[in-house]
Known about the structure:
This protein is α/β, with parallel strands linked by helices. It has three helices and ten strands, in the order E-E-H-E-H-E-E-E-H-E-E-E-E. Mean pLDDT is 94; it is low at 76-80.
Amino acid sequence: MKxxxxxxxxxxxxxxxxxxxxxxxxxxxxxxxEWKEPPVVVGLLKGAFIFxxxxxxxxxxxxxxxxxxxxxxxxxxxxxxxxxxxxDLEIDVEGREVLLVDDILDTGLTMKEIxxxxxxxxxxxxxxxxxxxxxxxxxxxFEADFVGFxxxxxxxxxxxxxxxxxxxxxxxxxxxxx
Length: 178
Ligand code: IMP
Ligand code: MG
């Protein structure tokens, strides 16, 4: 029985199921690109780093990789929005095919805001992919174009997802039990 800081972890998605689904997703995404120029894959740090690294290695063409990191404003009353950009893009995405990748879609606030932010940079196309989707938790109208698995409204760790920075390097996805 695995535990993190005294909480039990219950296996939700096995490593082989993750591997199989990542391959399927990569195929779906691959055929959706024109590939005239290398698409730009934008990952959200830190959670997306493992999923992104598995996903891009399944593509049969070259992609350019960039990352953004944002922090949530939480309950603060900042008028500039709900997120703050800690690390911006380094690549110019104007006129490029862009894929925005995150580990999990929860309330949708993060993806929706970054989606709007990237739209303003005039990419040729902008698609979104999340490995996990907690549909029940959505607070804004946002759906990803490509989803790995729908998951229940439970706190999850592993495969990039953390619980207070613990558990990101677990190769499977677990529910943190209370
Ligand atoms: P959203 O803006 O509410 O959709 O938040 C998405 C972000 O919250 C993700 O990028 C994750 O970092 C984090 N998150 C949401 N649910 C979980 C979870 O169950 N485990 C770990 N992180 C989560
Ligand atoms: Mg995250």
